[in-house]
Amino acid sequence: MMRYLDMTENVLEWSSEEIVIPYLSPLDKKFHRYFTDFYAKVKESSGDIKKYIIEVKPRSQRIKPKKSKNKIKYIKEVKTYAVNQAKWEAAEMWCKKYGYIFRVFDETDLGIK
User: pLDDT for 35-67, tens place per residue?
Assistant: First the structure.
């Protein structure tokens, strides 16, 4: 992702893990700090300039876990999924408030097999 941001001339500026968004964890019901992966300011083909908050996660963390015989693994996956959903919901609201666009990418989106 960093190479793409560096090499794409329409990306006017970018940073990594500089934007922090508070979110309420469904696990402990406390507020935590979510350090987003990337911020990018992009000049779109229309000429419009848009600001993005970008998160990169494995595809397995973007889809709801399926029950498994390995209960420990399943519980860990459910917790990770729940926390990610809380982070991403908070990021969506933050982005709407401040005029950003929130996107989550995985290896499929990035063309990684």
Answer: 999 999 999 999 999 999 999 998 888 888 888
What are the angstrom distances between the C-alpha of 37 and each of 29, 34, 98? 23, 9, 17
- The torsion of the CA quartet 22, 58, 107, 37, rounded to 10 degrees, works out to 20
CB of 61 closer than 8 Å to CB of 80? yes
Q: Is residue 112 part of a domain?
A: no
Return d(Cα 106, Cα 42) in angstroms, integer: 20
> Tokens in use for 85?
């959903």
Count of the separate structural domains present in the chain: 1
What pLDDT shows up at residue 11?
A: 93
pLDDT tops 80 at residue 3: yes
What is the span of the domain harbouring residue 92? 2-105
| Sheet with 49-56, side-by-side order of all strands | 11-16, 38-43, 49-56, 100-105
Domain-located, residue 111:
no
